[in-house]
Amino acid sequence: MYDKIVVLADLDDVEGALQTILEWTSHVVSVDDFLYSQDGMILLDAVCMKLIAVGEKLKAIDKRTGKTLFPEYPSIP
Question: How confident is the model over 11-38, as pLDDT tens digits?
Fold first, then answer.
């Protein structure tokens, strides 16, 4: 069995990171908003780093739960 409090805290971290990405990119309407300015490229790098962190956190959750949590939710890709 795994510590559900720790997993819930990890999931809160994932949700927070994704919310941050949504806030940072709320003004983005096309890929050009990232590519045609220095600020856009910095934003793209920051978003990529957040996504990497989310992926690592999800991988850690999967490991922490013995790969039993995510199969319970097959509708979530």
Answer: 999 999 999 999 999 999 999 999 999 9
Residue 63 tokens read as 């490991």
> Would you mind telling me the total number of residues written for the chain in this entry?
77
Q: What's this model's pTM, rounded to 2 decimal places? A: 0.88
pLDDT 10s digits, 32-54? 999 999 999 999 999 999 999 99
What CA–CA distance (Å, rounded) separates 59 from 44?
22
Decide: residue 61, CB within 10 A, 0-12 exposed, 13-18 middle, 19+ buried. Answer: buried
Give Cβ neighbours of residue 36 (< 8 Å, ≥ 6 apart). none
